[in-house]
């Protein structure tokens, strides 16, 4: 009789372990965000481009950063590209055949490989005070596949341009540029709980009067276009499975209040992209029921042996 009980106990334990090992649901989440700003120029009230000769003081500081995360591994770089995890396209791109700052074709999105990585890239060229203007691009891509542990791919990239200046003659300043914005979040239908994909963009410009100590009156321009900022936020979860994409391409501009001659101003442009894909694999309800039944059987057999 003890032999039967021991056999039953072993069977219950084996079944519990087997279902716990292979009964978990599959998952995949993908997020991508790209922001290209081109031909960014500073224009005077006559519509002509400011040049360095128009300023009595001009100090320019450009910085950029790329952060990519794969599970507990986080990599940082002053410029991209940077990949944490195994990017299918290697360090130069998240997928083969895709440009540095080019969205994936719809057909590619439908057949994305099950890979977990975070990818970030940045580029900054030209000058807002020279012909052709300034060009800034950032990309953040994250992908996560099924795993027995909590996994995440995250990327956050950005550039910041700061100008401290004073004008030789009073004038307004218009910032004008072409924007190409793209975000996508994808969680396939049938994905297990705890799968999330999110992407967003951020771009803003602010000019403040450094000679005015009052924060309520020192701002002469504050511009964060919805076409790049709030409208670009996309996300998907297992409860809202599928793909959400956002695209914008167009010309944007904003004009400051009058800037007085000889006054010290600071102009700051912030430009960033963010993508996050994460998944925590958990047992399916049916698997949980089987595991519970196995544990209950083991408990009952154990109690009978003691009685």
Helices and strands, with pairings:
Blueprint: H1 2-22, E1 28-43, E2 55-70, E3 73-77, E4 82-85, H2 106-109, E5 117-126, E6 134-145, E7 151-167, E8 174-187, E9 195-209, E10 219-223, E11 234-237, E12 242-255, E13 265-279, H3 285-306
Antiparallel strand pairs: 1-6, 1-8, 2-3, 2-7, 4-5, 5-6, 7-13, 8-12, 9-10, 9-11, 9-13
CA-to-CA gap between the ends?
Answer: 14 Å
Q: Percent of residues in helical segments?
A: 10-25%
Work out the strand percent: over 45%
The secondary structure category is alpha+beta
Total strand segments? 13
Mean pLDDT: 81
Describe the sheet with the most strands.
Answer: 7 strands, antiparallel
Number of helical regions: 3
Structural domain tally: 2
Q: How would you spell out the order of helices and strands? A: HEEEEHEEEEEEEEEH
The radius of gyration over CA amounts to 27 Å
Instruction: Sum up the overall morphology in one term.
Output: elongated
Uncertain regions: pLDDT < 50 for 5+ in a row? 1-26, 283-306
Features:
alpha+beta, 7-stranded antiparallel sheet, 307 residues, 6-stranded antiparallel sheet, 2 domains, disordered N terminus, disordered C terminus
Structure in words:
The protein is an alpha+beta fold and 307 residues long. It folds into 2 domains: 1-23 and 283-307; 25-282, no CATH class. The protein is built from 3 helices and 13 strands. It has helices at 2-22, 106-109, 285-306, and strands at 28-43, 55-70, 73-77, 82-85, 117-126, 134-145, 151-167, 174-187, 195-209, 219-223, 234-237, 242-255, 265-279. Strands 2, 3, 7, 9, 10, 11 and 13 form a 7-stranded antiparallel beta sheet that branches. A 6-stranded antiparallel beta sheet has the order 4-5-6-1-8-12, with no helix packed on it. A hairpin with a 7-residue loop joins β5 (117-126) and β6 (134-145). The longest helix is centred in the C-terminal third of the chain and has 22 residues, at 285-306. The two termini are 14 Å apart. Keywords: Signal. Residues 134-153 have a biased composition (Low complexity). This is PEP-CTERM sorting domain-containing protein.
């Amino acid at each position: 009789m003890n032999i039967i009980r021991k056999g039953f106990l072993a069977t219950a334990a084996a079944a519990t372990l087997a279902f716990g090992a292979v009964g978990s649901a599959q998952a995949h989440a993908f997020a991508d965000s790209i922001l290209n700003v081109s031909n960014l120029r500073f224009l005077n009230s006559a519509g002509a481009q400011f040049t360095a000769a128009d300023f009595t003081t001009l100090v320019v500081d450009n910085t950029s950063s790329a952060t990519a995360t794969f599970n507990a591994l986080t990599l940082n770089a002053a410029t991209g590209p940077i990949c944490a995890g195994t990017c299918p396209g290697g360090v130069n791109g998240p997928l083969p055949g895709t440009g540095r700052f080019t969205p994936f074709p719809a057909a590619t999105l439908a057949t994305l490989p099950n890979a977990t990585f975070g990818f970030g890239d940045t580029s900054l060229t030209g000058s807002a005070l020279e012909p052709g203007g300034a060009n800034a691009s950032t990309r953040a891509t994250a992908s996560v596949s099924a795993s027995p542990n909590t996994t995440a791919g995250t990327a956050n990239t950005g550039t910041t341009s700061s100008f401290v200046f004073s004008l030789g003659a009073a004038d307004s300043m218009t910032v004008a540029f072409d924007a190409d914005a793209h975000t996508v979040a994808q969680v396939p239908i049938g994905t297990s709980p705890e799968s999330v994909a999110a992407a967003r963009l951020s771009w803003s410009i602010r000019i403040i009067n450094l000679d005015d100590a009052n924060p309520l009156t020192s701002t002469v321009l504050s511009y964060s276009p919805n076409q790049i900022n709030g409208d670009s936020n996309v996300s998907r979860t297992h409860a809202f499975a599928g793909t959400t994409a956002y695209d914008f391409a167009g010309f944007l501009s904003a004009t400051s209040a009058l800037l007085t001659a000889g006054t010290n101003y600071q102009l700051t442009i912030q430009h960033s992209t963010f993508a996050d894909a994460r998944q925590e694999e958990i047992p399916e309800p049916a698997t949980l029921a089987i595991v519970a039944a196995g544990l209950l059987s083991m408990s009952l057999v154990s109690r009978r042996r003691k009685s």
